[in-house]
Amino acid sequence: MEECIITRDFVQTIIGKRKREIHKGDCGRILIAAGSVGMAGAAVLCAKGALRSGSGLVQVAVPKELFPIVQTGVPEATCLERDFSKIDLGVYDAVCVGPGLGQAKDSVDVVIFLLKNYKGPMVVDADGLNIIAKENLFHILEERPAGMTVITPHAGEARRLLGGKEYKDRKAMVLALYEKTKAISVLKGHATLVAADDTKAYTNITGNPGMATAGSGDVLAGIITGLMGQKMNSDHALSDERISPVNAAKCGVFIHGLAGDTAAETVGEYGLIAGDIAYYTAIAIKGLSD
Length: 290
Known about the structure:
Blueprint: E1 2-6, H1 8-14, E2 29-33, H2 40-52, E3 57-62, H3 67-73, E4 78-81, E5 94-97, H4 105-117, E6 122-124, H5 127-135, H6 138-142, E7 149-151, H7 155-161, H8 170-181, E8 184-187, E9 193-195, E10 200-204, H9 216-228, E11 231-233, E12 238-242, H10 245-267, H11 274-289
Parallel strand pairs: 1-10, 2-3, 2-5, 3-4, 5-6, 6-7, 7-8
Antiparallel strand pairs: 8-9, 9-10, 11-12
Helix pairs in contact: 1-10, 2-9, 2-11, 9-10, 9-11, 10-11
């Protein structure tokens, strides 16, 4: 098995200084289907992660009763009622589904609808993954266009996706996730791993124990989704090509960890919360792109 490290130099080939002529359409229009009663914070943190990583426009599809929470928590995002008969998926450059979604029937319907009907770059996180495992939706996941799906499980979610099977180490587990789902697989935790095929796993070297806190993964899902929606900045001009899902995943975990490291320098590891990671995402990217 080939082992690779996600380096700062690599990330800087993808995250460059923005061109002066850029507009918010170039920075990506993002849809996030997240949140449920009692879990609105997941939608807020995911949206903040997307915005702090550079998204031009973030729209959050949530139950209508959560509008006041989300619009107060992240006023830069707009809210949509989670009725996909009224949402044109074709206008979005990337979609995220799952953070705080819950596993009720309407949430299952959301996951199935998006997996079947959205063909662009998608991040599936948290309850989106739990629903895939519980409802055995792997065939729908595999039918999505190749290279367009990123899954972001922690170890517990990964075990559920893999039917409870144990693996000798985390690298074997992330490769098994890719093999079963055919999705770019991000196995969160110490030295987060990214697998985009069944031969090699990319290891992230940023991050610290303070990031083991509720909501950290929601921010990561937002960061990766936000990056997928953005056009590439070359040395000479803004490209028409957007950041690929695999590069968004690799850059996203590095930036997420770097944001956590930067935050820990100020607040320490014990007091670090997910909102700090979202805030420091912007500072981490500034350091990479200056």
